[in-house]
Amino acid sequence: IAGIELPQKQWPELITSLLSNIHQLQPHVKQATLETLGYICEEVSPQVVDQDQVNKILTAVVQGMNASEGSADVRLAATRALYNALGFSQTNFSNDMERDYIMRVVCEATLSPDVKIRQAAFECLVAISSTYYDKLASYMQDIFNITSKAVREDEEPVGLQAIEFWSSICDEEIDILDEYGGDFTADSDVPCYYFIKQALPALVPMLLETLLKQEEDQDQDEGAWNLAMAGGTCLGLVARTVGDDIVPLVMPFIQENITKPEWRQREAATYAFGSILEGPSPDKLIPVVNVALNFMLTALMKDPNNHVKDTTAWTLGRIFEFLHGSTLETSVITNENCQQILTVLLQSMKDVPNVAEKACGALYFLAQGYEDSPGSPLSPYFQDIIQSLLNVTHRDDAGESRLRTAAYETLNEVVRTSTDETAPVVTQLLPVIMLELHQTLETQKLSSDDREKQNELQGLLCGCLQVIIQKLGASETTKYAFMQYADQIMELFLRVFACRNATVHEEAMLAIGAVAYAVGGNFLKYMQGFYPYLEMGLQNFQEYQVCAITVGVVGDLCRALEEKILPYCDGIMTQLLKNLSSSQLHRSVKPPIFSCLGDIALAIGENFEKYLIYSMPMLQSAAELSSHAVATDNEMLDYANQLRNGILEAYSGILQGFKNCPKAQLLVPYVPHILQFLDKLYNEKDMDDAVMKTAVGVLGDLADTLGTHASTLMNQSVASIEFLEECLSSDDPSIKESAEWAKMAISRAVSV
Amino acid sequence: MPQPEVRRSIKRSAVSDQQRRRELALLRQTQQRSDSQNRARRLASSVFTLSSSSSSDLILPDKGILTRAADSE
Fold this sequence. Notes:
The structure holds two protein chains of two kinds.
Chain A: H1 2-5, H2 14-19, H3 27-43, H4 51-65, H5 72-85, H6 90-94, H7 96-109, H8 115-131, H9 140-153, H10 156-180, H11 195-210, H12 227-242, H13 247-257, H14 263-275, H15 282-302, H16 306-323, H17 335-348, H18 353-368, H19 382-394, H20 403-416, H21 423-442, H22 448-473, H23 476-483, H24 486-496, H25 502-519, H26 524-538, H27 544-561, H28 566-581, H29 590-604, H30 609-628, H31 634-657, H32 671-684, H33 689-706, H34 708-715, H35 718-728, H36 733-751
Helix pairs in contact in A: 3-5, 4-5, 5-8, 8-10, 9-10, 9-11, 10-12, 11-12, 12-14, 13-14, 14-16, 15-16, 15-17, 16-18, 17-18, 18-20, 19-20, 20-22, 21-22, 21-24, 22-23, 22-25, 24-25, 25-27, 26-27, 27-29, 28-29, 28-30, 29-31, 30-31, 30-32, 31-33, 32-35, 33-35, 33-36, 35-36
Chain B: H1 17-42, E1 59-62, E2 65-68, H2 69-72
Antiparallel strand pairs in B: 1-2
């Protein structure tokens, strides 16, 4: 109730009356009061509560946390309330004395005899590490001592939070260093204090110790989370934060443990190795990996322990992910060792499900590294690779450890990265996957459990078909090979839509977009059968991803069918305009809908006339909204730019669609508004490169389609000309290219 | 303050292949939209049929120097 009433200033006495309970003697009243204050801080935004009241809440909470508080329940409620109140404490954390006091109480609570209080106190420290990173410098030594003791000696839930504190500091420093490219200047908002770099010599040994605390079957349990897993994850974050410096600190641990008879030691050593492969430079890692690779391949084949094999296969995948690929000067994979690696991975794909799943993952990154490289050393084994992956999908135990999913994902990546020389094998794969999808559609009367599994499989098969169709459709030679299957494949997809499952619909819809792209104008014969599902997809607000994908497919259809899409446009436009006006539809779908209006207009040309009176006002109001949007944060600014891009793409499509038609005159009344929008964008100075490119293109489209009608108005807009000039001297070649074209179109228009 | 997200194990992939398929389809669509627009822009324009008789003083930037395109005609 407070969450509703306080923002409307309808319950001003609430907090005061709650605070008056704090001095009551009965612990249960105090406890309930602190819980309520915690809930209020969780629910309402900090702006709603006056600083004076915040101070009183914090005083009550911190008093409740104090060691002198007799009741453990009260202390726990207070510690949890502080967690929620931290977002209210900006002013208090800026005051040295108040901050010192709060930090002292939190640190003392981490030593409480009650495990729940210790855990809640560490949760507060984690939240403080991300909210008040820049205020932590003077407490770090003490926090290190406290966390280190908790990780080594305390119960697991407490130790996990202690590790989480360091992971959270890594997150902060990775973000800061990413943002400033490592060059902190005095102008930056938050400086990097390099806490991780300073703590490194003590932090790394503490994390390495945790790696030895594995649970027996953690790899079979999807939801497992323990000290070893949290420690390895934190070690990976530390490697990303400090780069090369971590390598000499971890290598002795790896060397000491990797050949030990105890599996925990071998696994911990391998896990440590896998964890530090992202962050340090290839120069630092490649010599180490070159020495280790053979050992790892042998371990994957021969180690008697499944947990060790699982981690070894995962580590190999990380090696291929970060140290193999065309962007690297030297790769750890050579033509010589590639065959051996492949043999080991294909063999491991027959191992127990969790090991086989990681082997599939390693093959995924091995294939990815050969993207765009003709003469891939995988080509001679392509057929074997495909067959091995299909065999995995057919295993009786493929439902365990997400093995089947991993096999299809790898199959998709192998197809995506395949080269011309293996195109015949990809073409042969198409009817194989089609048959599998057909078989799932023939199965009748399933239990709800089996139906769920069936839907999952159908989603995977549709996904795989989409990848194959997109691959075959991308080149003229393979496109014709695909054509012979198009009728059958569309029939299958339409049958898939009869199954009520959002993921399957989304996958089938994406695949149909790929079919339209491949068959072009021939898609017309499928339209009648497909249209009801298209409309259904556009109406699916609940599963908005389906709606977004369907909007994209409308664009594919426009480009494939061109003016032949006209008979379906009334229905599609009605739905798209409804979607734009709806407050129920997820906002992320709206920018692509605007772009889609441009696709339709470009496809049907002057036939778009009847939609102008509906779509132009909508574009205008969205344009106003997007240029007035106060970009309070990066996310909001990103969205404003997506919206602007969609609106501009719509204008572009409409203008180009009417080019060379007498009806282009109908657009003249809209020109002032379009120019005003462009002026505003230019003056706001917060558009991204994509918007800049589209915007300058629209300037050219105005001149190209409307000639002097537009150029006279452009002449009155100083910003337009300055904007064009700025784009002409842009470093971004695509912006420059658009600007050159716009300049030419304007020159042509004014010279008439 | 929201509850902390449960951290994902480093051993589990951060991006699903389904997400990758969505992104790649979006990339293809963006590329094709841009190709279609460029094709349309390359088609000769016959704007003169629309233009009015009013002359234009539009100032265009050219090699960094502002020149009067209309004047140069």
